[in-house]
């Protein structure tokens, strides 16, 4: 690594004093002989643009200094390039950082990654509906439709620096207890077949990481960033039974006995509303992006991610 860029989200949930943190991060890189510059985001979408500019300028690595949402934006700017993605955890959940075994101390997390190696990993690709037509996003943590999309949508405009885990869980409980979640159509092709299968679901989720953290930690056990397939989790209707059962059975590690849960390895899947008037929210890496219909597959391209070196 010779040239690096720090993309800093000043509004991230665990942002420290940037006037001291950013110089400390830059100093650590410079001490290792790495030329570095830092750029601060100013609005939603800025990190995407800054990452693309860093890649075009010939940077070897871009460090997303923020939460999973910041990582998501940086990913859009460097997916398909050879630029390595690094993580400086400043967010609330920090799911990717936790799955990489990173310290939640920003400086220590950066220090760890100086001993990591870039590895090419597959990333997910989501196509979804917007007011302007179909759009595409890449994801590295998770994508889903239904309650998780509705939860993320309900937080739009919230000050995430004040929206910690406790408030997040309280908002989730309020939402799930006060709203009904209609079923939608889920079609998928399993990894070993070209045949499309169909079922109804009130939630469809695909995660690339094994631990989402907190009370969500056991919902996606068994996943891996290195997998060359997708693991689809569908919660079956009715929502008032299926959703609580998902948490309850996951909590005691009895996923296989949950009659309201379907877990399958797929090459791709798509979700569409059963009724045209239904508005089912879609989230990608914890960011609300639009509504169904959506389709998900692994991207033909990859991302180069700084990861622990494999043990010999």
Find the count of extended strands (DSSP E, 2+ residues): 14
User: End-to-end distance, in Å?
Assistant: 22 Å
The CATH topology of the largest domain comes to Tumour Suppressor Smad4
Q: Biggest β-sheet: count, sense, barrel? A: 6 strands, antiparallel, barrel
Q: What are its keywords?
A:
single chain, 312 residues, Tumour Suppressor Smad4, 2 domains, six-stranded antiparallel barrel, globular
Structural overview:
With about 300 residues, this protein is of the alpha+beta class. The chain has 2 domains: about 5-115, 3-Layer(aba) Sandwich (Rossmann fold), CATH 3.40.50; about 125-300, Tumour Suppressor Smad4 (Sandwich). The chain has 8 helices and 14 strands. The protein has helices at about 20-30, 45-55, 70-80, 95-100, 105-115, 145-155, 165-180, 240-250; strands spanning about 5-10, 35-40, 60-65, 85-90, 115-130, 135-140, 140-145, 185-190, 195-200, 205, 230-235, 260-275, 280-285, 285-305. Strands 7-10-11-12-14-13 form a 6-stranded antiparallel β-barrel. Strand 1, helix 1 (about 20-30) and strand 2 (about 35-40) form a beta-alpha-beta unit. The two termini are about 20 Å apart.
């Amino acid at each position: 690594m010779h040239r690096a860029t720090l993309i800093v989200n000043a509004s991230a949930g665990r942002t420290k004093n940037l006037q001291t943190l950013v110089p400390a991060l830059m100093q650590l890189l410079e001490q290792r002989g790495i030329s570095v510059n830092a750029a601060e985001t100013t609005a939603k979408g800025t990190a995407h643009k800054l990452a693309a500019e860093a890649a075009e300028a010939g940077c070897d690595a871009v460090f997303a200094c923020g939460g999973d949402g910041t990582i998501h934006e940086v990913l859009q700017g460097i997916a398909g390039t050879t630029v390595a993605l690094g993580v400086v955890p400043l967010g609330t959940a920090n799911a990717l950082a936790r799955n990489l075994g990173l310290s939640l101390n920003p400086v220590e997390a950066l220090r760890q990654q100086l001993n990591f190696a870039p590895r090419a990993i597959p990333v997910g690709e989501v196509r979804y509906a917007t007011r302007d037509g179909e759009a595409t996003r890449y994801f590295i943590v998770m994508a889903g439709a239904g309650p998780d999309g509705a939860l993320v949508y309900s937080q739009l405009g919230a000050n995430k620096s004040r929206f910690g885990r406790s408030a997040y869980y309280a908002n989730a409980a309020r939402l799930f207890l006060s709203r009904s979640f209609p079923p939608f159509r889920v079609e998928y092709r399993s990894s070993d077949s070209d045949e499309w299968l169909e079922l109804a679901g009130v939630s469809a989720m695909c995660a690339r990481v094994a631990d989402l953290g907190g009370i969500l930690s056991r919902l996606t056990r068994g996943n891996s960033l290195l997998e060359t397939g997708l693991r689809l989790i569908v919660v079956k209707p009715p929502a008032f039974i299926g959703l609580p059962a998902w948490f309850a059975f996951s909590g005691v590690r009895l996923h296989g006995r949950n009659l309201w849960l379907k877990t399958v390895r797929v090459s791709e899947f798509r979700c569409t509303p059963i009724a045209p008037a239904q508005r089912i929210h879609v989230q990608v890496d914890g960011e609300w992006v639009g509504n169904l219909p959506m389709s998900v597959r692994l991207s033909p391209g990859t991302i180069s991610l700084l990861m622990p070196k494999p043990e010999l």
